[in-house]
## 1
Amino acid sequence: METTLGSLSLDSCKPSNNNVSGPPQNGSLCIQDSVIKISPESTLGRHLAHRLVQIGVTDVFSVPGDFNLTLLDHLIAEPGLNNVGCCNELNAGYAADGYARARGVGACVVTFTVGGLSIINAIAGAYSENLPVICIVGGPNTNDYGTNRILHHTIGLPDFTQELRCFQTVTCFQAVVNNLEDAHELIDRAISTALKESKPVYISVSCNLPAIPHPTFSREPIPFALSPRLSNKMGLEAAVEATAAFLNKAVKPVMVGGPKLRVAKACEAFVELADACGYALAVMPSAKGLVPEHHSHFIGTYWGAVGTSFCAEIVESADAYIFAGPIFNDYSSVGYSLLLKKEKAIVVQPDRVIVGNGPAFGCVLMKDFLSALAKRLNNNTTAYENYHRIYVPDGVPLKCEPKEPLRVNILFQHIQKMLSENTAVIAETGDSWFNCQKLKLPEGCGYEFQMQYGSIGWSVGATIGYAQSVPDKRVIACIGDGSFQVTAQDVSTMLRCEQKTIIFLINNGGYTIEVEIHDGPYNVIKNWNYTALVDAIHNGEGKCWTRKVSCEEELIDAIETATGEKKDCLCFIEVIVHKDDTSKELLEWGSRVSAANSRPPNPQ
């Protein structure tokens, strides 16, 4: 982690009033006794805007505040950049997260401290999910640094580093830009570091700097040409040789994709390996959507006791398994209950390979390793053949009687029918995790959820960002009522952006996922009239359609309307279900996670 602070003085010839924030006289700046003519558009603000557009950002998610207003002026003046104003900073951060998942990088802009500390939860989530998000904060006037002044939007101390110190643990680079002389360097280093590390970065820009022309911004920035990371050739060959020897002697090996396939940019190499070796192919829950589910040897989600039927049996009975980019935490391991053995595992991380209990190989990139390994493995379809023998097709939910209260499994049976290459699924933290895991994704269908951080309410903002980044897809968001109450107001932003998302609001009266881990009266929430709330937010502006459903007949009619007559609208469907209507997977997972959480202290 790196922190860089701009110096507090200008090395160049100072303005006559000795104010470092004063504009250059007569459109020029005195440097070493020479006069350089610079354009009024050669400003820090425009440079930052150019850079964002160059790296693929066409939308920034913001909440205005007095420290960032001038900066926002310059960002929106950039022809290729659109400002998406959000209702609060948390949702702006979640939107940048969702945008980065589809576009590869996202950006958000907030004000000093009150904005920064509000958005930091979303930035922490992006850090946990390895998403490059450029978090830009409007900072104090340069003249206030190094003084004993107390500023508004702070905790009342003459110390402006509180926000910076908070961001140091959830970003991979921090730049405090309070000096034009090194602003160009700091901004470029921050953005390039985000792209290289695939993590968020923090850029604080003093409020009086964005509009001042400066020679370092006098020409269009040259696009980044980031040096590609390379594998150590000897290490790569040794890792491939050791792994091939390990797997080629196995009788029924399998392969499992993990969430770090994304950050390693190794999804295609993983499929190349699967095509070559013939192994049974599974994904960890947090990697759903990264591996094509139409692959001929795909056997589903490996999530221990709550994964796809027959998947855990095949994976855990294998005599060798290769995990590409896994994250084993208490949630993904179902309370540490996976039946895996280290001596059977090849673990491939973005830049490291570990072979069983034996050797580890560093400086080996996952993409290179998987591609090279594909050329060295013998074809072995034994595990997939075993799966094919024991496989029994999924059962069909019991048919609903006329006007029978709607069940969750019937809801997702109908959502399954909606999926195509032109759709994407956003699954909120909660029972939607488990129900959406069971959806079979057609080729080209997007899928996102936040498993590592698991912040309830994430999906509302993430849906905004994802839908904004892929306007050709219709997003289907599955959100629980408890999560929706955390971030509901940014349905307003979806309307302003003319998004055509379909939201299924699952109203079961509380925090169902927490009920199954540890129940108590705190898991019951105040019921809202959700459709009326969205109608009030709509307020006759934009295209919005809402419907409340409580039986299958009403659901079918609502889906037909949302995908037909109202296909160009934001569609909000409130689904009324029983408070105890959960997936069987959540019941099992909740009890196991509860057991892990309630372990007594080790004896002292």
Note: The two ends are 35 Å apart (CA to CA).
## 2
Amino acid sequence: MEYKPKLRRVSTLTGTWVDRSVASGVADDEQDEVLTRRGSWTGRFDFLLSLLGYSVGLGNVWRFPYLCYNNGGGAFLIPFTVMLVIAGLPLMFMELSLAQYAGLGPAVLFKRLSPLLQGLGFGMVLVALVVMLYYNVILAWTLFYMLASFEEPLPWKGCHHAWTSRQCYSYDEESKCLDLNGTYYMRECYANVSLIANFTKVAKKPPAEEFFKNYVLQLSSGIEHTGNVSITLSFCLLAAWLIVFLCLCRGVKSSGKVVYFTALFPYVVLIMLFVRGITLPGSYTGIMYYLEPDWEKLKSAQIWGDAAVQIFFALSPAWGGLLTLASYNKFQNNCYRDAIIVAVTNILTSFFAGFVIFSILGFLAHELDTEVGTVLDQGAGLAFVVFPEMVTKLQMPMFWSVLFFFMLLTLGLDSQFALMETVVTGILDTFPQWRRWKLRVVFGVATVGYLGGLVFITNSGMYWFQLVDKYAANWSVLLIATIECVLVAWVYGSERFIQNIEEMIGRRSKCFVVFWTILWKVVTPATLLFILCFNWIQYKPVSYGKYAYPEWADIVGWIIGLLPMGVVVLTAIYKLIADISEKSLVEKIISLVRPTDEWRAAKVALYHLEYDEPVTEL
């Protein structure tokens, strides 16, 4: 008689025995149940469209065309593409793979990957928190303009309003004055020739600019003059946060469905604007102004620096958003394919947006009988001054205005979703027991975001907006990205990391291994240092128009900018002090910089083997 133990497969979830014959059939179901505890993307394209919406944002429309024109036109595409390959794509692929493998957001991921550098995750969450405070203000402005666009005529048309100054200059009113053989000067039409000789030259301000600064922002004379909160904008900001809350109240399950519209609708509008733009007089001149290559510019460091900065901030690595979105992926998702699709789509969208913007600017320059360069602007100036001024000269101005600002709203929402989800995920990953109250957590973050954003809609709000926008996601983000790249490629090991990637997406070729190893170990860190040095050399204190900020404001800006990196340093110091072992400082650093025992793949071991009671065999 012989005793032979019998192995049984026991579910790690239910503790019940699962027969080998049915194990494969329930594996996927139990894997899904594990993922459901934290949450995961439910649709096939949820993640891809969320990633696309996060990476393709307002900067593609209102910053890239300006940079392209300013750096040699079509020649700018060469350094932009190069920087995409050696800096943007490697960082994006690294973060997507890292988070998908671990199934964790940044706050906990780095705690397990490298306890000494746990602050990297906290720093990313802090960056996302600060940026989401002022980013939603842009959406509030957009909502204001979208609603105002339903007025007939558009409220920023003409100079005869209570909010216009004597410097307001309307080309339509000037044209009517010239038809009467008069002279248009400081909002008035003068017929007396003797008075004209006494006129002095004054700065001309278009009605749209005065509407934005004097009516919408009610801008004070400086950052030190805070003034009052704009009641109208406070309601718009509340509406913006309400939209974000409703779309994120169920986490990625709800936001993953919204992005099917918000990520794709901007392309519909861009195509409509392009078709309308190329039919306008002067559009060809504007497009040639945009495309005409200046190959000599390729010899300057400026064009390479601008391309590197633009691609880095376009794909937004080290903000925590990429890590957060990828952490909800299924383990076998092909994140390599997703990274390439989004990176290529980003550059094509930016290039196409340039055609749209410059065809419109060409028309505006034609209507004003001036050069395209004189009406060119970027950022908020393009969205809330140049385009509103141009749309008043189109047929059906109300339609095009509503359409444009609705496009801006959808572009901004996708990025805001990722920023807020980064903060929420950071909280819930750190305190998993709060998952049962996720709705309350999302509501709490939205409330904090709304209250924190009120400073940006005071009379000095635009000054604060420019200050935080310049410093919040600059120095610290670049430093965090550099440290992250060195950590993964050198400390964790690029070979080991590629093996983790192959666990998820299958075996890769030797060329794949060599190519990404060289990029992550050498090329990308060197490029990040170049961007950091370039930003340092090009640094100028923040300004808004001709307004020079006081010294204390610059100090506040530097504090905001370096705070995330300060968190990284302080966390590392705390970890070293908290280690009460008798190891030397160097030994502690070596020990704490390595992955912990908790670092493992997110693919849960669905079964473990147990011995059954001995069975008697004759």
Note: Residues 155 and 161 are 9 Å apart (CA to CA).
